[in-house]
Amino acid sequence: MDIHLRPYRAFVRIADLGSFNRAAETLALTQPALSAQIKELERQLGFPLFRRHNRRISLTPEGRLFLDRARRFVMENDWLNMVARDIRENQLRIGVAHHSAAIPERCELIETFMIDQPAMRISILGRAHGQLLSDLRSGEIDVAITIELADVDVGSVIEPMDPGLNRLAIASRQVELALPAGHPLHEEPLPAGALRGVEIATVGRAHGVALSEYLSRHLFAIGAQSRSMPEGDGRSVLRYAAVRKLAAVDLGWFGDPPAGMVRRRADDLDLRTRLTVITPRRDLREGASAFLAFCAGRQTA
User: What CATH architecture does domain 176-270 belong to?
Assistant: First the structure.
């Protein structure tokens, strides 16, 4: 059977409105033209879709069974058209972590590129860290921007780096400790061993499994007691730690710590994170290639 969408859309519209005349008006067709489409569809299907009772119509048993499938076919076609329009109109789809709007470097990178390329249509899509990588592999997004550990072989500890992805580090930050007012630790930098037995709030999986798991294991290795907070992104962890009067891991990307907290370098936290632009290791669309070249020219990490 040669499938054409138009009669299926007409069938669904008639079933929803209960009238050939009203359906014809909404579809900008004459009633005879609409009737001819339905008759041809019924011929192709091999069963009637409607019973006609003078001026009233009703679905046949076959029509009731077929309606859900026809509706799904119309919706799938509409979705495909929407995807095609998005691909056509949005030349660059950038995936970002939901919380990253609070990272000035991330915002400035995208905004400066938009100024540099004013004609390019860009779509910014918020994602969880794990979803960013999955959507890169599937082609749902062209580029991902996120925070990752720097100079740490997470593959030997947590999970291997995906060989199908390229990474470009834009900037990096030292992991530090944020301390609430009155906390007994005050030396700067805090010497090795100073964090033993100290309760430290740390980030969760909002920044990805590798970063959160490595930090938790690292705190355990130095004898600290890691504590999870109600929200696991770096900015929220600092806010909740201030409320609970706890020391906290400070990734350094979210501006100054909350009022009353101070930053301290700690020899036991000799770690860095980096703001990373990630692309799939395959041919890129023109917009993604232009963005990657722009980022490479601004690389400072």
Answer: 3-Layer(aba) Sandwich (3.40)
Residue 94 has pLDDT above 80, yes or no: yes
For residue 22, what is the enclosing H or E element?
helix 20-26
From-to residues of CATH 1.10.10.10 in the chain: 5-88
**Each residue's pLDDT tens digit, 222-263:** 999 999 999 999 999 999 999 999 999 999 999 999 999 999
Please write down the HEC assignment for all residues of 179-197. Answer: EECCCCCCCCCECCCCCCC
Q: What are phi and psi of 283, to 5 degrees?
A: -60, 130
State in words which class domain 5-88 has. Answer: mainly alpha
pLDDT in tens, 158-200: 455 667 889 999 999 999 999 998 898 877 789 999 999 999 9
Judge whether 141 and 93 are in contact, CB under 8 Å.
yes
Please state whether beta strands 122-127 and 92-97 pair in parallel, antiparallel, or not at all (unpaired).
Answer: parallel
CB 108 within 8 A of CB 254: no
Which among 41, 34, 37, 49 is positioned nearest to 3, based on CA atoms? Answer: 41
Where in the chain is CATH 3.40.190.10?
90-171+275-297, 176-270
What is the spatial order of strands in the sheet that 247-250 belongs to? Answer: 225-227, 199-201, 247-250, 176-180, 261-264
Which residue stretches of 139-297 are H helix?
A: 209-221, 234-244, 286-297
The architecture CATH gives domain 90-171+275-297: 3-Layer(aba) Sandwich (3.40)
Per-residue tokens: 23: 């359906």
Would you state the torsion angle of the CA atoms of residues 240, 245, 248, 254, taken in this order, to the nearest 10 degrees? Answer: 50
Q: How many CA atoms lie within 13 A of 147 on its CB side?
A: 31
* Greatest CA separation for the chain: 92
pTM exceeds cut of 0.85 = no
Are 134 and 266 in contact, with CB atoms under 8 Å apart? Answer: no
Cα 34 to Cα 194: distance, rounded to the nearest angstrom: 81
